[in-house]
């Protein structure tokens, strides 16, 4: 069955690739008629809000990496790279973080970029009336509790020390705090001079975010054509102006975008893992690959009584042929994980591997008195074809152990199914978790339960929270490793997620674009745009 499914998925992808190439005449994506040079790439979904304070969406983040910027970012190897900040220092007690901003930076409207913008942004993220899902990433900042309780209007721990310096003081030591700021580019800095007068309660849904008129990234906003494309224009005031004039992000299914690489309609596009060999054979196209810094997983909605028993969750992971899913949906371009803990020095030995074992799964379900009539709902984005293929494998696997799974497609532009609560399993991926175990706080700890934070399953373990806290409150890597290994063992046993794969990220790039650096996180795939050279 595994071989048949993989062959069927591969054949369908190849037919789609050939069909797109056959019906589309070769084009020059430089669009000389519009003046200057244009690079064309793709988005798997339409941006929803372009508001970094809103729920995470990969398409929105990809566009935001071109429009706005963060203080720093962590790369694939876990190294911190300067962005808006040129340097930073950490106090010996890991409670004070001081950022020196690059001098002379300006917004696209010519207004100076200053520490006030950073203070405004982080206060807005933390403000209870803004209600950002990213808020709890800042919960250890001094003054957060008072701001949340309505006792203060500002985040006391974040202060401007002159125009070019920002200081962040924490309530408790946290050696991993820098990773919370740097991983995944969540905290895009916003223009205080534009948004500062808007009431916090109205900020999240302010129409400015649908057409942001001011930016500090490499591009400025041009237009959004619903269901078609996003057009961004070069920002001449960016600290390192890009080598071309505009970038167009076409909203396309992955297989269509891949096909357009061959016709020259698109310069950069994600490559479906089953299409890797086909794309590598296209003239004038190369495939860049790198291991993802995050992982694909299926959140299990532990708010529902029938998923609260860990034996049921263990049965689901035993009952899923994860390697089969990697082979069928990813063409083998990925590997199985058994924990969200990916930092090498924090990985414990002896984790349960949950090798595919339908008989073990059936026994666990029997012990937990599983109701075979219970139907599990699994919403998914049909534009992400590799993930849809994973659900196809999972549906067949679970049927064999007596569990009914109903995949249900949804339209991302209509909002997230997570907000409606009518779901049991939710397949998603991404993140940057290898740089420091502290980056897992938003997806595993009690206070981060969605919608307050990124803990989508609503998982809560006092023991895990204690271990995570202990790991954060010491600068000793040996002591941190001991605490995080204990946390990993707890998570491995509790199974809040089905860890489906750590995939390879594959990107097709036409030879006219040089200097492209692959990032495993699709949302950050365009981050190094200022380094590109375009023919």
From TrEMBL:
<dbReference type="InterPro" id="IPR030678">
    <property type="entry name" value="Peptide/Ni-bd"/>
</dbReference>
<feature type="signal peptide">
    <location>
        <begin position="1"/>
        <end position="21"/>
    </location>
</feature>
<keyword id="KW-0813">Transport</keyword>
<dbReference type="InterPro" id="IPR000914">
    <property type="entry name" value="SBP_5_dom"/>
</dbReference>
<protein>
    <submittedName>
        <fullName>ABC transporter substrate-binding protein</fullName>
    </submittedName>
</protein>
<feature type="domain" description="Solute-binding protein family 5">
    <location>
        <begin position="80"/>
        <end position="443"/>
    </location>
</feature>
<keyword id="KW-0732">Signal</keyword>
<comment type="similarity">
    <text>Belongs to the bacterial solute-binding protein 5 family.</text>
</comment>
<dbReference type="Pfam" id="PF00496">
    <property type="entry name" value="SBP_bac_5"/>
</dbReference>
<dbReference type="InterPro" id="IPR039424">
    <property type="entry name" value="SBP_5"/>
</dbReference>
């Amino acid at each position: 069955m595994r071989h048949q499914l993989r062959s069927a998925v591969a054949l369908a992808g190849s037919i789609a690739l050939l069909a797109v190439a056959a019906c589309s005449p070769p084009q020059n994506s430089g669009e000389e008629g519009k003046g200057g040079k244009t690079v064309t790439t793709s988005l798997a979904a339409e941006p929803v809000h372009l508001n970094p304070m809103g729920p995470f969406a990969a398409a929105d983040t990809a566009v935001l990496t071109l429009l706005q910027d963060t203080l720093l970012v962590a790369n694939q190897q876990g190294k911190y790279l300067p962005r808006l900040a040129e340097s930073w220092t950490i106090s010996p007690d890991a409670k004070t973080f001081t950022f020196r901003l690059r001098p002379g930076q300006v917004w696209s409207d010519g207004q100076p970029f200053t520490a006030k913008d950073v203070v405004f942004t982080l206060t807005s993220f933390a403000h209870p009336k803004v209600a950002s899902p990213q808020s709890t990433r800042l919960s250890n900042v001094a003054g957060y509790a008072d701001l949340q309780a309505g006792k203060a209007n500002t985040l006391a721990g974040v202060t401007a020390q002159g125009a070019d310096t920002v200081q962040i003081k924490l309530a408790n030591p946290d050696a991993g705090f820098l990773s919370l700021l740097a991983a995944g580019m969540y905290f895009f800095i916003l223009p205080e001079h534009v948004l500062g007068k808007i009431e916090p309660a109205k900020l999240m849904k302010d129409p400015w975010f649908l057409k942001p008129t001011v930016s500090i990234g490499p591009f400025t906003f041009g237009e959004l054509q619903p269901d078609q494309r996003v057009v961004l224009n070069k920002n001449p005031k960016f600290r390192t102006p890009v080598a071309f004039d505009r970038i167009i992000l076409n909203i396309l299914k992955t297989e269509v975008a891949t096909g357009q690489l061959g016709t020259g309609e698109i310069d950069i596009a994600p490559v479906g893992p089953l299409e890797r060999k086909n794309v590598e054979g296209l003239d004038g196209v190369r495939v860049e690959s790198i291991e993802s810094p995050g992982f694909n997983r299926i959140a299990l909605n532990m708010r529902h009584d029938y998923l609260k028993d860990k034996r049921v969750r263990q049965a689901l992971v035993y009952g899923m042929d994860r390697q089969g899913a990697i082979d069928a949906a990813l063409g083998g371009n990925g590997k199985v994980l058994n924990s969200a803990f990916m930092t090498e020095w924090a990985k414990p030995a002896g984790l349960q591997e949950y090798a595919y074992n339908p008989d073990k799964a059936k026994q666990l379900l029997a012990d937990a008195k599983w109701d075979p009539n219970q139907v599990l709902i699994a919403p998914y984005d049909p534009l992400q074809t590799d993930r849809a293929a994973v659900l196809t494998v999972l549906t067949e696997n679970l049927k064999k152990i007596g569990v009914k799974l109903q995949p249900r497609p949804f339209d991302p532009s209509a909002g997230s199914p997570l907000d409606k609560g009518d779901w049991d399993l939710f397949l998603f991926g991404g993140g940057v978790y290898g740089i420091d175990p502290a980056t897992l706080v938003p997806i595993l700890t009690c206070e981060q339960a969605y919608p307050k934070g990124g803990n989508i399953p609503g998982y809560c373990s006092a023991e895990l929270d204690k271990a995570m806290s202990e790991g954060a409150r010491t600068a000793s890597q040996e002591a941190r490793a001991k605490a995080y290994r204990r946390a990993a063992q707890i998570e491995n046993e509790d199974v809040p997620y089905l860890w489906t794969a750590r995939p390879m990220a594959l990107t097709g790039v036409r030879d006219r674009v040089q200097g492209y650096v692959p990032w495993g996180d699709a949302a950050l795939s365009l981050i190094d745009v200022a380094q590109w050279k375009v023919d």
